[in-house]
Design brief:
By secondary structure, the protein is of the alpha+beta class. It is built from four helices and 19 strands. A six-stranded antiparallel β-sheet has the order 15-16-6-5-14-17, with no helix packed on it. The protein is elongated. 25% of the residues are buried.
């Protein structure tokens, strides 16, 4: 037979642990361009009060009151833009994603750190994935003048040769993260996109991570206090149960 107070304390420790893991991943990637912070969704007692009340008659309300991790999702708020001056670097001023050719199909990113390989193909700095335009992988003649227009047009020596693909998702939170900055559409998901025909591409800039280290440190302080409270609840209840068992033993 489980103890309700111990169960609540354990659930609190487990949710705090999940939040700490997400927070540490955020801090580690605070300087990764295009990184999206992870947020943990917690289903807590206030959100489940109605369910607890409805279960009261069957004496199962204590289980419904337990805080529970609903899942971890990527916060899709934009990060700040900073200037690099690089001709192959680009940022998106809206909600879209660049399209790249991954090992198993199209992948998507906000990380606009691009470069040219030895054949003149525009590729991502991280992963060396080809950047896709309307006509396929974008090719640049080595040594030529490159301009990325605001509408995504690729101008080589002032002549438009292609146009960067920028796509929009109706539910970007459902994208599956590959390595924190690259995403793909999960299998069996209808997270379809539309082509952004009027994007705002900014050459010479890249988007930084949307992680605020200060906010994460404040969250760490808060979680350490919550963790301490949950630990004391478990320890106090454990001591009380041990004492009760001791009192319940027959005298020798």
């Amino acid at each position: 037979m489980s103890d309700n107070i111990l169960s609540i304390g354990q659930a609190g420790l487990e949710t705090s642990d999940a939040r700490v893991k997400a927070m540490m991943n955020n801090i580690v990637n605070a300087q990764t361009p295009g990184f999206r912070k992870s947020d943990v969704s917690i289903k807590s007692f206030p959100m489940m009060l109605d369910q607890a009340e409805s279960d009261l008659e069957s004496r199962t309300s204590s289980r419904a009151m337990l805080p529970k991790v609903n899942g971890v999702y990527k916060n899709q708020s934009h990060g700040p833009l900073f200037k690099t001056g690089g001709a192959t670097d680009a940022a998106i001023g809206g909600d879209g994603y660049f399209v790249l050719q991954g090992p198993e199909g199209e992948i998507f990113t906000r990380d606009g750190r691009f470069t040219l390989d030895q054949d003149g193909k525009l590729i991502s700095v991280s992963g060396n994935y080809p950047v896709l335009g309307k006509s396929g992988p974008i090719m640049i003649i080595p040594g030529s003048k490159l301009e990325l227009a605001q509408n995504g047009s690729v101008l080589v020596d002032d002549v438009e040769t292609d146009r960067l693909r920028v796509v929009l998702f109706s539910e970007p939170k459902k994208l599956e993260s590959i390595n924190n900055t690259f995403y793909r559409i999960p299998p069996a998901q209808n997270n379809v996109y539309i082509e952004d025909e009027n994007p705002r591409v900014i050459q010479g800039y890249i988007e930084a991570s949307n992680v605020s280290v200060m906010d994460e440190m404040m969250e760490m302080i808060y979680l350490s206090r919550i963790y301490g409270v949950d630990t004391k609840v478990v320890q106090a209840r454990d001591a009380a149960l041990a004492k009760a068992m001791e009192l319940g033993r027959p005298a020798q």
